[in-house]
Amino acid sequence: MALPGVSITLTNGALGLVAPGEDSVVGIIFNGVAASGLSLGVSFQGFDLADFEAVGVTSAYDTTNSVEVWRHIKEFYDEAGEGAELWIMIVSQATNAQTILDKTTANAKKLLQDAGGRIRLLAVARNPAGGYTPNTTANEIDLDIVNALTTGQALADDFQAAFTPVRIILEAYAFTGTTSTLANLKAQTKPNMAILLGDTESGARSAVGLLLGRLASVPVQRNPGRVKDGSLLITAAYLGSATLESDESKATAIHDKGFITFRKHPGKAGYYFSDDPTCVAANDDYSSLARGRVIDKAIRIAAETFTNELLDEVQIDANGRISTNKAKYYQAIIDNAVNTAMTAEGEISAFESFVDDQQNVLSTNKICIELRITPVGYAKQIEIQLGFNNPAN
């Protein structure tokens, strides 16, 4: 028989904490050729640049095949830092962005499924084979990218319905340099989609890896263009074939059309992202990646919280309605989950829930719950009044 004594066992799981890094899981689908250790159409997960180099995605791979795969991954980790979770898939160079995002094909959908729905941000990086001729007649960027907004939004809608929402970023492939007839993304109705126009090298592509890296390094409510986070870790910025410095007004025009792009700030060295618009009207609740990421996180928390309550017993009061105690219980569990994971982290300003205790659950077998988030605001415009003062007057 053991000696008399005191035993203490620690319990776990009561705080409802979110595992670190979950908000920053990202994916990229590239056109390319098979690498030495990575076949086409295969999902691969890595946590630093060396993981991808180990399967043959190296600087030499890019040079040999005239693609930008390793470079995007490197720029992602330059911003996100080692340890960031990145999922990639390389698909045939003959597969366009519209097809990559088509939910009936085994491309983006397969990558999202292979990652178990954990990917929060997904990008498509175009590397068409030599001889490809982009159609830029109507939009000043490849028509394929504009068409991909439709298939991408349909894919995002399906994953949101499964409580694993994702935001998708495309590159403004083959920008001609003309802004007057550039596609107007604010006329679109694709809130889960965004397009980046700008690269760290001159050419047809845009630096989606860099943007994903900045987004992965900040909390969900953070605008990737936030000045306090410092300039991007790049030495040059291009809008198509021209440097940003050659015509900074062009960046303003690109921004006005609803694209994410590069900019400079007076008195600040380096380059910054301009903003984080999505492909929807500016007055839409989800017209920014930050607002979208906030609501996506709340969706996941609410789904996880209330899935645990399915088919549970619901106490009924003397009037045949849901008991007040049960209604308050539902409010308490979601308040605790969201406030712990989001309000306390400064990702939202406030959260409230409401469960009407007059619901006739016996007849409907349904619980209706209202959730409301007060988001953070953004200082997008700062107006200053400045002038002289004469104390004698």
Task: Give a quick rundown of the structure.
By secondary structure, the protein is of the alpha/beta class.
Explain how this protein is built.
The chain is of the alpha/beta class. A hairpin with an 8-residue loop joins strand 9 (262-263) and strand 10 (272-273). The chain has a 6-stranded mixed sheet with strand order 2-3-1-4-5-6, sandwiched between helices. A two-stranded antiparallel sheet has the order 7-8. The chain has 2 domains: 22-293, Rossmann fold; 308-374, no CATH class. Helix 3 runs parallel beside helix 7 (208-216) and helix 9 crosses helix 10. The chain is built from 11 helices and 12 strands.
| CATH architecture term of the largest domain | 3-Layer(aba) Sandwich
Query: Which shape, going by the Cα principal axes?
Result: globular
What does the radius of gyration come to?
24 Å
Number of helical runs? 11
Strand content: 5-15%
Structural class: alpha/beta
Low-pLDDT runs of 5+ residues are 9-20
Written as H for each helix and E for each strand, in order along the chain, the element string is EEHHHEHHEHEEHEEHEEHHEHE
Which CATH top level class of the largest domain fits? Answer: Alpha Beta
Count of domains: 2
CATH topology of the largest domain: Rossmann fold
* Overall pLDDT level: 94
Distance between the termini: 94 Å
Helical content (DSSP H or I, runs of 4+): 25-40%
Largest sheet strand order: 2-3-1-4-5-6
How is the main sheet built?
Answer: 6 strands, mixed
